[in-house]
Amino acid sequence: MTTVAFLTPNFNRQDLFPTTLASMQAQTLEDWECWLVDDGSDPENYDAMVAMCVDEPRVRVSRRNREPKGACTCRNIGAAQTEAKYVISLDTDDIIEPFCLQQRVDKMEQHPELDFAIFPSLMFEDEPNDLGLWWNIDTGEDLLERQFRQDAICQGTGSIWTTEAFRRIGMWSESLALWQDIDLYFRAYIQGYRYEKFFDLPPDLHNRCNHASLSRASFYNRAKQESRIQVVTDAIELLERSGKSDLRPWARYMVAEISNGNASARHFDLSSKITDFARTHKVINDTEYATLKRVRQVYEYRLYRLPGIKSWLRSASQNFTCRSLLGRVRVGDESKHLQANQEALTA
Predict the structure, then answer these.
(1) Are residues 10 and 118 in the same domain?
(2) 220 and 205 within one domain
(3) Crossing angle of helices 222-241/252-264, nearest 10°?
(4) Helices 309-318, 286-300: crossing angle, 10 deg rounding
(5) Are residues 286 and 162 in the same domain?
(6) Exposed end of the chain (fewer CB within 10 Å): N or C?
(7) What is residue 134's predicted lDDT score, i.e. its pLDDT?
């Protein structure tokens, strides 16, 4: 049995994958395999990927053989076929440190009760360490609450799962256009999957920032916003089914951000959909519902052009303001942010 399987989707990434492949080949733990599943790349790109891996038998290159199209389908194809003990989702533009696999496997072997484990990672743009930013840091707070505040401590590549647990949880959702990792960890935290975070260890992953994917035009397209709503409503309903209805108000920050964002993008039906659901499921109270409805009306009737309305919008948004350290902590500034975070908690 192979120790670890990388689940790696590809779509026209022949320019970036050589660096990712080199980081896999540099691992001190050499007992790994990579399921590199192509998601419909141009023929020349696919051929280039095959040529890159021809002398690396641990990389299994194939084409996606079923619908739907998407990176998560490609990852799941690999997860369903591997016989490895553990799986790690690794994208074709990310880079891992040579000690990554050894570090993660060592911790899983030391804690055989775990379903998954979370490790620290850094963000970069062109070269590792060029931004000097953590993906996020550990504050000691509940990870489910932090995720509802959009302060997630982990994205898909920052963890290692036992293959058995990853299959049991249902693997990646293939129906979402956005927030697939948020959905995965909501399911894990809410359903009580056993995990540990090891942020006392050195970062073993460099996660590339893709500014193009974060553009406003792309982010607020309808399909992506529908997916965000689906992730939040599914999480709230899962809380209810899991006997954790008392935690539903944690979702109020996400609800407000989604509602106001869709109102500003003129998706008024989506804004109304998430707030109606949230009031029905006791995520927000009637006063909060009325505030979000008024915000929506400001955008719908373009009332923000009137004197004083922009100031009111800022004031209304403060009712749903929450702390998030995601992508904001520079290496070396951890103590400063932790102190500020603690002061905010006790204020």
Answers:
(1) yes
(2) no
(3) 160
(4) 150
(5) no
(6) C
(7) 98
